[in-house]
Amino acid sequence: MEPLTLHILGCGSARPTHKHNPSSQVLDCRSKLFMIDCGEGTQVAFTRSRLSMNRLGHVFISHNHGDHVFGLPGLVCTMALMGRTADLHIHAPEEVRPLLELVERHYCEYLGYRLLFHPVDTTSHQLIHEDRSLEVWTLPLRHRVPCCGYLFREKPLLPHIRRDMIDAFQIPFSQINNIKNGSGWTTPDGTFLPHEKLTTPAHPSRSFAYCSDTLFTPSLAPLLKNVTLLYHEATYPHEMEPRARQHAHSTASQAARLAQAAQVARLCIGHYSASIDDENLLLQEAQAIFPHTILAQEGMHIQL
Q1: Among 26, 23, 14, which Cα is nearest to 59's?
Q2: 82 with 219, same domain?
Q3: DSSP assigned state of 189
Q4: Taking the mean position of all CA atoms in its chain, how far away is CA 44?
């Protein structure tokens, strides 16, 4: 099975601390990189992760708050300095467009590649990107400004062909893809071997959902049903719920309740308030409701 890995570049909230950078993640899907949010310090964390900027083709921005976009100008300009020529696609609410136009107009005399902006509708759940292996859907969130999360779904994988059957019946290599796609095979003596006998089931498709920043939104549960990994903000502990509501954020227990309702496989919490000294308290709060919870940390690599 091809690797599908989430890299945490930043998991803090609005104010950088000595422990955390603002929000940014990279999903590595079959050697293609997809960035989700780009807070201040992202390109430094990206470099430390030893990921290649040349493999980054798409950036998905949740909303136009500084801790989610202030890293974009530096990232865009650094790619120009590195001689990038491939298109870079930015998927974001319309409010982010002026920032990119400012960067192109004043800070990159010669960009050298096309910066393609794709506005997203933050109020609906819709398919916004698709390639041979992956689909990306928006998730409507509730924050102080237009905001959306993103759902990455791996397309169904092909079944595995049985090596012993290839050898036993001398099936030509040219027929393997046909068999994986549903065909059977007829031997030289006329014996028909059905597809089901020649293959074993494919691994289940994997999925990743990113929800930051948002008020507790139970209506997301059907859209997140059975995802492999859910990243959900947990800015505050339960006792600070009034403050969470005031700033349109969620608590650790609310993130866990959503994960439980959606029956996700794993929950990763992050976007910690700078006022929280010990995030393990958030972890304990979430695990009391949803045991399969982990804490996001910079430099973490999560295999899906």
Answers
A1: 26
A2: yes
A3: T
A4: 19
**CATH number of the CATH domain containing 138:** 3.60.15.10
Question: How is the beta sheet containing 229-233 ordered, strand by strand?
Answer: 127-130, 134-140, 148-154, 207-211, 229-233, 266-270, 293-295
Q: Tokens for 95? A: 């409010």
What does pTM read for this prediction? Answer: 0.89
Phi, psi (deg, nearest 5) at residue 96: -85, -20
User: Residue 169: which of 196, 142, 187, 151 has the closest Cα?
Assistant: 187
Cross-strand partners of 25: 8, 36
Q: Which domain holds residue 168?
A: 163-200
Same domain, 117 and 192: no
pLDDT value for 1: 63
Please write the tens of the pLDDT for every residue from 208-255.
999 999 999 999 999 999 999 999 999 999 999 999 999 999 999 999
Within the chain, where are the H helices?
42-48, 66-69, 72-81, 97-106, 163-169, 176-180, 195-198, 241-246, 252-262, 280-287
Tokens standing for residue 263: 């029956």
Cβ pair 234, 255 in contact under 8 A: yes
Same domain? For 185 and 141 the reply is no
Q: How confident is the model at residue 77 (pLDDT cuts 50, 70, 90)?
A: very high
Domains of the chain: total: 2
d(CA 36, CA 39): 10
Active-site residues: which are they? Answer: 67
Does 121 sit behind a cis peptide bond, omega within 30 degrees of 0 on the bond before it?
no
Angle between helices 280-287 and 252-262 (to 10 degrees): 40
